[in-house]
Amino acid sequence: MRKNLLLATLVLPICLLSQNKAIVVPAKTDNSLAVPYHNETFIDPKVSDSVKVQNPKQSTTRKLVGAKRDFLNLNFIILGNTTYDLQTNASVGRRIILLPNGNISAVWTASTENSNTFSERGTGYNNFNGTAWFNNPSPTPRLENSRTGWPSIGFNGNTEWVMGHNAVTGGFVKSNNTAIGSQTWTSGPIILGQTNRRPIWSRTVNSGDTFHTICNYADSGVAGEKRAPTINGIFAPFTYSRSTNGGVTWSTQHILLPGYDSSRYVSGGGDQYAIDVKGDILTIVSGDLYEDVAMWKSIDGGLTFTKTIVDTFDYAPYRDTVVFKNKEQPFVCDGSLSVAIDNNGKAHVSWGVSRVTKYNRSKDSAGFYPSTALLGYWNENTKKTKFIAGGSQFPADKNADLNFGNMSDTTWSVYPGTWQAKPTSVRLVDNTTQPVGAARTGGTSLLHMPSIGIGANNTVFISFSLPVAGDVDADYCNFRDVMMVASTDGGTTWLNPINVTKRQEKEDDFACIAKVVNNFVHLMFQSDDLTGTNLQNDASGSKPVSSNDILYAAIPVSRILDGSIGITNNTSINALKDSKEIFIVSQNQPNPFSNNTNVLVWLDGASDITLEVTNISGQVVSTQSYKELGVGNHNLNIEANNLAAGIYFYTVKTATHSVTQKMIVQ
After folding, report:
1. The dihedral of CA 76, 82, 83, 87: what is its sign?
2. What are the boundaries of each domain within the chain?
């Protein structure tokens, strides 16, 4: 539902248009990191759409004096583009999957329009077939023949499916291709629609022919348009639906899960939930401002559920009459969550953290503090909530990579769609003084949108997005990078966060990692030349409709675990630059082959590359050179037009490392 949040601050009242609900219910957390939080300005969720701030668009990027930042200029593979730049309001859905044969498929909300109507918006799709991504980038505007958004992707046997919502009428469009990786798709009729209601923002997963969908209701204040319902005393709740025949018919439609009622909840919100499935084990989580972080788990394929409150909000159900004791500012969920089931069937939950207030019975005294930068985490083994990233891990030193201001001394004020750090003035290279901040998406916090993947031995990986210092746009907002944390003991202890994108003047956000991690974490995200989004941060006219890249990286697990793929606070940039190791992401494909084959590699350091082919006797039969390849993924082509049939070996070399693999020419 689209609601306006009036951003009330000590500096300037601003209106931000949001697709989330105004304010609802989160949780109390174990403060396992030392986190100062007393000086942030809160946001008053009053409704208004009349306040605008004039802020002329500027074209130059600003640099802070003394703010150093080493940019790796990582090489990522472009999956496609989109001018529609809002991939979610809060939680990121299942947008990338690692297939059983090692191939990869990814989807996103795509548009090619340069206007803000986005009438041909739909699902963008790309597939890595072991050789290459079939369209690089994908030029197809959408898979469907109607306007859709918010796709989920999965596979069922030898075909893939995608399901996105129809925002105009409500309900969902399920599309199938003819085979995994096929570019031929067929879309069915709208499913799970409801009369006089508009269910959208779905998340869908499947285990064989059993499909599970959660979604929410859009609300409109326009006369004659569909309004969100109140069910079990909850306005616009999220619902659960189930199909046992591949999504053809749905035996369970739009039910509320047990314990999801007015005893703990007042209203729901779009995208403030997540889902995962493994066999008959199904987990669903939800959370938002002023409510519990809760998990529903089924071990019988969605027939019955058990509810667990992962993080309790002491003042649930939150109503206008509620007053917090002693002016408390409890830690809560910002609405962006992720859940994953490990190899033992246990759930892992993570969420972005905010804080909330309610000082007296006046509605105007309620507010939340989205400038918090913390990552919450819980699992079924320990059953303890803790912070695993944030606070002191993002230090005050402006030269530190993961820093965004001094968290202990920073007060936050609000400008159009942005959080601005206080004190209000910082000296720039051109000797002018301006505030510094970060664009905000929906009701989420500085650190937001976690995505969880599980590897061998239940190693846990969580990506998230965070603004970083030393890279400021014309609106004095810091660009975002994608970060990652990892645990090698099933979530008991955690390594320091690392920056895995680290690119200059790029807004890297909406990160999603495949639930299954092999030797690589398979990551996709949206990258923009402008901070924030056109759809939620264009109050000043400085975020016009523009093309955004959808990027992919296969990041070696070993480099995440040793901290060398990105930069932690105690990792030397020079040590990383000196590394030229090569990782083979995939065996050359096709193999055997007759004309051309490809191999996808990850490069640790910028380097020239030599690709050498030898026969079974060790004689060099061909050599190809690639100059000045950057850190990251590269797709290398091997030609065999002049080679006789037989067994060969290809060796990929840098100045310091080499990798050799066997291939067959037929």
Report:
1. negative
2. 77-575, 580-665
